[in-house]
Amino acid sequence: MTDKKDCMTMEQAEQKMECLREVFSIVRLVDGEMLEKRAEHSADADADAMEMCQCYSFWNKAKPCENCISMKSLREKKQAAKLEFLDSDIFQVFSRYVEIDGKPYVMEMLKKLDEDTLIDAVGYGKMVQKLSVYNDKLYRDALTGAYNRRYYEDEIKHVKGKAGVAILDVDDFKLYNDMHGHHTGDMALITVVEVIRQYIRKTDKLIRYGGDEFLLLLPEIDSENFARKLNKIKKKIAETSVPGYERIKLSVSIGGVSATEETVEEAVQRADKRMYLAKMYKNTAMVEGMDQKIAEKDHDEHTDILKPRILIVDDSKINRELLTEILQDKYQIIEAENGNECVEKLEKYGNDIALILLDIVMPKMDGFAVLEYMNQEQWIDDIPVIVISGEDSEEYIWRAYEAGAVDYIRRPFDMRIVYQRVFNMIKLYAKQRRLVKILTAQIEERENLRQVFFVNNFRVYSDICQSY
C-alpha cells in the first residue's frame, strides 16, 4: 500500500522536485504507464520502444537497461538505488514510486559522483577497485581468463574500425571430452589460450566466442602481418602439448578477415565462413586477401586448390552447367559426361574428390554401374555420392541408397537445397576423416607402447635367466 506522503498532486510534485534539485544533478518524473509499455517492447528494442523510454536522451544507451531501477521501483512500489555509468562518469541514481493525481509515476534523482562527493580519496579508490573487479568478473570467462561472449555482445559487437578479425575453432574438441573426459577438454582450451596470448598485444582482444571457438580482434593491423601472426599461432598450438595429456595433439582451424568500415559482427560472419574452409585444409589459416597468394605457390594443374573438389556426372550439358553455376563459388568443379568418364576421373583424382553428384540414366555406363564400381574398388566409404535424377520412382531411390548413395535429390530441384545438402555432406565427411585419422594414430601409439613394454619385459626376463 502506498504511503500517503507519496500521493500528491502534480503541483506538489513540482514543488518537491524543485527542492530536490538543490541536492541532485537531475530530478525528473517518469510516467509509469510509459514504463510498462516500454517493457512490453524491450525484447525487440525497436525505434518505438526507444522513443517510449525517457532514459535514452540522457544515458545514450542503444537498448533498454536489463536492470532498470525505475521499473523495479514501479513494480515494487518503493524506493530503490543503484550506480550508473556514463562514459567515465559515475552517477548515483535513486528511483522512488509516487502517485500523482491518482496515476503511477517514478521520481528519478541523479547525482554525479566524484572524489569530493565520496567519503575520501581512499574510499573512492576502494569503490573504483571494487567496480573494476566486478566488471572483470562479469566479462571474463571463468575457465580460460579470456573475455566472454557477454563482453562481445555488450562491448565489441557493434564496434567499427580497421582491424583483423579471426575465428579460431579447436579441431575435434568434442572428441577430447568424449574420449578423455571434460577435464582434458578444459586443459586443452586453457593451453590454446595460453599460446594465443604469447603472440598478441595488450590492445588485442581474445574472446571465448563459443564452447570451443575463440574470437581474436587485432586493431590496426595490415593483412600480411595478420596472416603471418595467425599462421604462427596455428603452428605453435600444433607444437604444444596439453599438460598431463602429452599424447593429445592440438590443432585449430582459423578464418580471418580484415575489417574496415563494417562492424565487428559483420566481419565475424565472414571470418566464420573462412574458418569452415580452413577445416578442409589444415596447413594454413584462411585469411581474406592472402588465399590467392597461397594458391599461386602451388604447382598443381588446378590452381584453385583451396576449394573442395566436386565431380559432376551427367550426360546433359545443361544440367552440368546449372550445377556448376550453383556451386562454383565455393567448390572446384570437374565434370564427366557419363559413367566411363566418371571412372577415369576417380582413378585420376582419388580421395581428392570431396563429393560426387551423380545422374542415374546415362549412356555407356549408368549411375548404378558407377556405384557398383565404387563399391568394388572401395571408394564408396571415402567419397560421398549424392544422386540427382529426374527418376523419382521408389525402385530407383531404393536401389541408389542400397548401392551406397548418401542422398537422393529429385529434379526439378531447389538450388538452395542442393547447395546446403552438398555443404552439409562435405563438412560431415571431412569431420569423419579427421576422426578416423585421430583414432588410427591413437591405436598405432598404443600398439607401439605395447611393443616397447613387451621388449623391455623380455629383456628383464632374459637378464634374470642369465643371472641363474
UniProtKB/TrEMBL annotation:
Modified residues (4-aspartylphosphate): 359
Domain GGDEF, chain residue ranges per copy: 161-290
Domain (Response regulatory) ranges: 309-426
Keywords, alphabetical: Nucleotidyltransferase, Phosphoprotein, Transferase
SMART domains: GGDEF (SM00267), REC (SM00448)
Top-rank taxon, per record: Bacteria
UniProt keyword Phosphoprotein present: yes
An example Gene Ontology molecular-function term: diguanylate cyclase activity
TM region positions: none
Protein task: May play the central regulatory role in sporulation. It may be an element of the effector pathway responsible for the activation of sporulation genes in response to nutritional stress. Spo0A may act in concert with spo0H (a sigma factor) to control the expression of some genes that are critical to the sporulation process.
InterPro entries xref list: CheY-like_superfamily, Diguanylate_Cyclase, GGDEF_dom, Nucleotide_cyclase, Rev_trsase/Diguanyl_cyclase, Sig_transdc_resp-reg_receiver
The protein, known as: Stage 0 sporulation protein A homolog
